[in-house]
């Protein structure tokens, strides 16, 4: 195991980490899947009109491809503090130290996963329902659709396929046209 601080990104962290990165590599987290299963009441929606953001949802046999970020040395404490302020804003995410696969090696990484008993959890929404919400929602960090489009584009640029995100991008563009 690597002694450095690694952070696993699967959504907006990929295109906006918000901390000093020494290295980034494609990585895989077994047993979890990327899913629009969290209602966003702060960043991409409001309490009255929630949006959706990605979260890691536990799923037997699944594997989520994302990015492993090795944090710049001597910035570990500040990085964890910044991530907690960003990711734990409503307690819908849980902070976990999970083993990811990076270049064939196992690395322990700080990872934020959905709390399936939290009121913002909405696992199992049909893709059409997700598209309808994402097309309309706006929050403190902007339009929900921009979050989707940025995430999908950055995953594609890394060679990471996600059929659900591709379908959602197409459908949301059509809904917004």
Word description of this protein:
With 177 residues, the chain is of the alpha+beta class. The chain has one domain: Gamma-glutamyl cyclotransferase-like (Hypothetical upf0131 protein ytfp), CATH 3.10.490.10. It has five helices and seven strands, in the order E-H-E-E-H-E-E-H-E-E-H-H. The chain has helices at residues 12-15, 76-87, 127-136, 144-157, 163-176; strands at 6-9, 21-40, 51-71, 93-102, 105-114, 138-139, 142-143. Strand 4 (93-102) and strand 5 (105-114) form a beta hairpin. Helix 3 packs across helix 5 (163-176) and helix 4 (144-157) crosses helix 5 (163-176). It is globular. The termini are far apart. The model has no long low-confidence stretch (mean pLDDT 96).
Summarize the topology:
Elements: E1 6-9, H1 12-15, E2 21-40, E3 51-71, H2 76-87, E4 93-102, E5 105-114, H3 127-136, E6 138-139, E7 142-143, H4 144-157, H5 163-176
Helix pairs in contact: 3-5, 4-5
């Amino acid at each position: 195991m690597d002694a450095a601080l690694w952070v696993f990104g699967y959504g907006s962290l990929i295109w906006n980490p918000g901390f000093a990165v020494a290295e980034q590599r494609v990585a895989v987290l077994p047993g979890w899947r990327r899913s629009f299963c969290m209602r966003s009441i702060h960043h991409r929606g409001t309490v009255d009109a929630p949006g959706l953001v990605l979260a890691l949802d536990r799923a037997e046999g699944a594997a989520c491809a994302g990015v492993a970020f090795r944090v710049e040395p001597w910035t570990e404490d500040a990085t964890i503090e910044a991530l907690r302020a960003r990711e734990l804003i409503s307690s819908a995410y849980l902070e976990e130290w999970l083993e990811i696969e990076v270049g064939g090696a196992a690395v322990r990484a700080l990872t934020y996963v959905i709390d399936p008993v939290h009121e913002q959890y909405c696992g199992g929404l049909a893709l059409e329902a997700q598209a309808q919400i994402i097309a309309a929602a706006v929050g403190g960090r902007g339009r929900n659709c921009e979050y989707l489009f940025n995430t999908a584009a950055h995953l594609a640029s890394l060679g990471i396929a996600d059929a659900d995100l591709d379908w959602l991008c197409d459908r949301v563009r059509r809904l917004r046209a």
